[in-house]
């Protein structure tokens, strides 16, 4: 199973690809790639959204994931910020749908619980555990890429729990 994780943001949208490799003796997570789409705040919103769509679609075509995992909406104090984030999430979902990929959404608490074991873990703890779980020398950078990998890892753990070893 290959999972494409997306951490939506209005300045940076992180992405990461994780694959599950199974042998007769073990099952391990393998990092395939990760990065972030940097958005220019000077550009108008439609152009930023077009960039997110184009880059995510291209990455999904390149890495051929089986599914996409994305962070669910959280309640922000600033309604305008939440709305802008919602635009990016919608475009990310559209990119996945355009590539005929199923999208699963996970709450921030669920992601942190799956990766760290504690839903209120600090960002640094999540980054540290992503590096540990993927056997990396250091946490992926930027932090948005590490968060996207965490979302993909969360999906792998959740899919394993809910659906067994098969791809969903």
Automatic annotation (TrEMBL):
UniProt subcellular location: Cytoplasm
Transmembrane segments: none
Catalytic residues, chain numbering: 7, 71, 144
Name of the top EC class for this enzyme: hydrolase
E.C. designation(s): 3.1.21.10
Cofactor binding, per record: Binds 2 Mg(2+) ion per subunit.
Cofactor: Mg(2+)
InterPro entries: RNaseH-like_sf, RNaseH_sf, X-over_junc_endoDNase_Mg_BS, X-over_junc_endoDNase_RuvC
Protein name (database record): Crossover junction endodeoxyribonuclease RuvC
Record organism: Terriglobus roseus
Organism classification: Bacteria, Pseudomonadati, Acidobacteriota, Terriglobia, Terriglobales
């Amino acid at each position: 199973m290959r999972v494409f994780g997306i951490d939506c943001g209005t300045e940076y949208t992180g992405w990461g690809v994780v694959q599950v490799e199974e042998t007769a003796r073990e099952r391990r997570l393998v990092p395939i790639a990760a990065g972030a789409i940097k958005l220019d705040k000077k550009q108008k919103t439609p152009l930023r959204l077009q960039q997110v769509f184009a880059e995510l679609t291209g990455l999904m075509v390149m890495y051929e994931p089986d599914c996409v995992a994305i962070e669910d909406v959280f309640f922000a104090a600033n309604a305008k910020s939440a709305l802008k984030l919602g635009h990016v999430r919608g475009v990310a979902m559209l990119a996945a749908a355009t590539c005929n990929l199923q999208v699963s959404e996970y709450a921030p608490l669920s992601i942190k619980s799956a990766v760290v074991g504690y839903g209120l873990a600090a960002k640094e703890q999540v980054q540290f555990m992503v590096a540990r779980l993927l056997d990396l020398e250091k946490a992926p950078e930027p932090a948005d890429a590490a968060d996207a990998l965490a979302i993909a890892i969360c999906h792998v753990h959740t899919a394993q729990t809910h659906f067994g070893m098969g791809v969903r």
